[in-house]
Design goal:
Elements lengths: L1 H23 L2 H24 L8 H25 L15 H10 L2 H7 L4 H12 L4 H8 L3 H16 L9 H15 L3 H7 E9 L1 H5 L6 E3 L1 H8 L6 E6 L2 E8 L2 E11 L2 E8 L2 H4 L2 E3 L1
Parallel strand pairs: 1-6
Antiparallel strand pairs: 1-2, 3-4, 3-7, 4-5, 5-6
Amino acid sequence: MGEDLADRFEAERPRLRRLARQMLGDGHAADDAVQEAWLRLDRTVSRADDADGEAVDNVPGWLTTVVSRICLDVLRSRTSRREDDWPDGTDVVDSAPTPAEEVELADAVGQAMRVLLDTLAPAERVAYVLRDVFGVPFDQIAPILGRSAVATRQLASRARRRLQTPEPRGDLVPGDTVVVDAFMAASRDNEFAALLELLDPDAEVRADDAALAMGGDAGRVTGARAVAEFFAGRARAALPAALDGAAAAVWQYRGEVKVVFAFTVVEGRVREIELLADPDVLSRVARR
């Protein structure tokens, strides 16, 4: 069984390395993730043989899930370190790819795509790579991220839009907070001209199914004037918040968040506002 398992893993290794490489953007980190997946597979199967451990019926699917979760942990760790103080020189490791690795990465996603992927939040990056690059169904991606299929679909959609219209992440652009708060203030005070000034000409509003089920009337609103008309005078009870590190606003009822307004800001103007009421999304809302 051991040799057969090793052979099956080696058959999957090239695919797993491409998966990890696209998520992490680093060959050494990808190799470490794949090797860790092998160790976990070997332990899992050994326990299943010895006792009542977990059986692995679908090795390729199991490995895809495990490598994705390992990459997600690595990406979250990077984000956490980026938010800390700059480390001492002794802690800085040169992880620049070698020339051979640069060629390999260019063949896989291209240097431009690597830079763009680095602007995505960890969960967005994993959802995008698994769905758009490897074609994994959303119902299989959702357990990897610990979210519903609806929330996972929204993550991939948001990542896709950010890649199509590159922008810095909200948590790296304090100016976005100013734009969002100014927009909500103009909405609260019914200042139509100010709303227009803050909106991109192609601005749009979208609502998820949960928000629509609450009686919302913004399935989709397009164009700056239509969006301004929709929001004029409507944000009197909205409060500042953050969603996945980006500036947002929320509507509460009896102290409980019911809807979050997720903003996409491009070059100082609001490009998109998503009205989200999916419980998995609301669980990630933080006060600001």
